Amino acid sequence: MQRSCEVTLEVFLSGLRKNAMVAIHQELNRLTDSGHSNWISHVHRRSSLLGSIKEETFSKEELSYVRQGEEALQRAIVILSDQEGWTVETVAANGDKVLSKTIPDIGKVFKLEVVLEQHLHSLYEELVGNMEQMGEWNPHVKQVKILQRIGPETMVTHEISADTPGNVVGARDFVSVRCAKRRGSTCFLAGTSTQHPKMPEQKSMIRAENGPTCIVMKPCSEDPNKTQFTWLLNIDLKGWIPKTIINKVLSQTQVDFAQHLRQRMANSVSLETAPVC
Q1: Could you count the other beta carbons within 10 Å of the beta carbon of residue 91?
Q2: Is 36 helix (H, G, I), strand (E, B) or coil?
Q3: What does pTM read for this prediction?
Q4: Helix, strand, coil % (nearest 5) of the chain?
Q5: Cα dist. 132→37, 120, 128, 180, 233 in Å?
Q6: In this structure, what CATH number is given to the domain that contains residue 84?
Q7: Low-confidence ranges of the chain (pLDDT < 70)
Q8: Shared-domain flag, residues 25 and 100
Q9: Which domain range does residue 17 map to?
């Protein structure tokens, strides 16, 4: 009797997983057909963005994280594909731009749009391959630690943010599932908040929540050695902070991130080309 119930449950869960993947692919098809965004069509033509999950290689817990990452990516794609309703928050002197809009059931999201001088593969390696080193070059981040890797595209991380100047917003910590994908000439790093047994909430720090978030990198049409960089950000900092302050902090954080990333990449190039004594 117990064995029969287990088999029935497994068949039911398998059906749910297959239905979820079908729904994701249908959503991508809808976005492509509607022509909302050229980069969505580009990704769909080159290869399948949301590859099939090999269920037999993961435990139920691991598969749950994989699905969370895939769903975060799907939600981010839907938001980024809609070009209507964005409001300019700030434009830097170098042209870096942050826009925002309010999404039902999600809240306010911010979108950074910049062009970086580096090739996207170098940027992908820095942001994904060297993720745990981010605290070395981004003063807004104290620490990033990978708690668990699930396959080549999914990981669970713990991040600690730094205090803002004047301690307007104190340090926060996040536990996130991240979905990193390289498809054709476009790279993605999506994420959303999750829970993990290795990092329960700590009394000494406010646990903030994010998601969906997503970085999209693709070659510039004018110069393929440069990268069109888009960062969708959605964060609930928790605590009693006025929305006007939150909006200013988050948009400034995105502008600062672009500058710190540029400096990091420039320093990396300088180290690579320095003569060996």
Answers
A1: 13
A2: coil
A3: 0.80
A4: 40, 30, 30
A5: 32, 19, 9, 14, 19
A6: 3.30.530.20
A7: 1-56, 166-167, 270-277
A8: no
A9: 2-35
